Amino acid sequence: MRFLKKILFAAALCTAAMGASASPAEPKNGVEYETLPTPQATESGKKIEVTEFFAYYCPHCNVLEPQLAAWVKKQGDNIVFKRVHVSRDDSVAPQQRLFFTLQAMGLVDKLHTSVFHAMHVERNRLNTDDAVFDFVAKQGVDRQKFIDTYRSMGVSARVRRADAMMQGYNVTFWPMIAIDGRYITSPSQADQGSKSARNEEQLNAQALSVMDVLVAKAKAEKK
Fold first, then answer.
1. Which ranges in 49-150 belong to alpha helices (H)?
2. Which residues form the signal peptide (predicted)?
3. Do residues 64 and 211 make contact, with C-beta atoms less than 8 angstroms apart?
């Protein structure tokens, strides 16, 4: 019986240790996050700007989305949250323009999750303009109004801005999260210190914990 108690106690300690490492309270620069060599301009005033670099086709971005949405809701007025759809090649261009068109039309909150569902559950690649137009029309969006916005100079400017931000933040993989133009982290990087995550949800949870610390750090530095 005494031996069994020792085993159970050891197991409890291991579980506690894993839980603690899964939520790094003191993430280290160069390990769980990076400090940008050149801070990037933000537009959030006294609030902390949090920017997600993502792509609709990215399976990791798809898994992160519900956890990130819950985190953003929890942060409330503490942050200003932005998304930037990254570029890659011509096959991704329609998805990128889809996002920035939804953004220009004020439809991201309404259709963002639906786009992920279409791509990762329904296997709709959305890799041509016509596929995108058909998709949004089925969502009840005015097809011609969407097409006009999709092909507008305003959306083209948003795409160019996204490309410039990718260079400024040195975005080479995604999802990646930037905190107030100064710090960057990601689910894979947030696990570098402990390497304790056993699945993608745990990786995401670690990243969100690191983001909590970085938001607090950036807020303190604004004072």
1. 59-75, 93-104, 108-120, 129-138, 143-150
2. 1-22
3. no
> Which two three-digit tokens encode residue 63?
């898994």
* Both tokens assigned to 87: 């570029």
> What is the bridge-based pairing of β-strands 176-179 and 79-85?
unpaired
Return the DSSP state at 33. B
Tell me, yes or no, whether 66 and 123 share the same domain: no
The predicted pLDDT at position 36 comes to: 98
Q: Is residue 201 part of a domain?
A: yes
Reported confidence tier of residue 205, pLDDT bands at 50, 70, 90: very high
Least confident of 39-48, 190-199, 212-221: 190-199
Report the alpha-carbon distance of residue 129 to residue 111 in Å, rounded: 17
Structural domain of 114: 92-160
Does 182 share its domain with 151? Answer: no
**pTM to 2 decimal places:** 0.88
Task: Report in angstroms the alpha-carbon separations of 207 from 22, 24, 37.
Answer: 9, 9, 21
How many domains does the chain fold into? Answer: 2
- Shared-domain flag, residues 81 and 175: yes
| Domain shared by 155 and 98, yes or no | yes
Mean pLDDT of the region 33-49: 96
Closest of 10, 114, 28 to residue 65, by C-alpha: 114
Query: pLDDT tens, 106-125?
Result: 999 999 999 999 999 999 99
Q: Is the dihedral of CA 158, 159, 160, 164 positive or negative?
A: positive
Q: Helix, strand, or coil here: 49?
A: strand
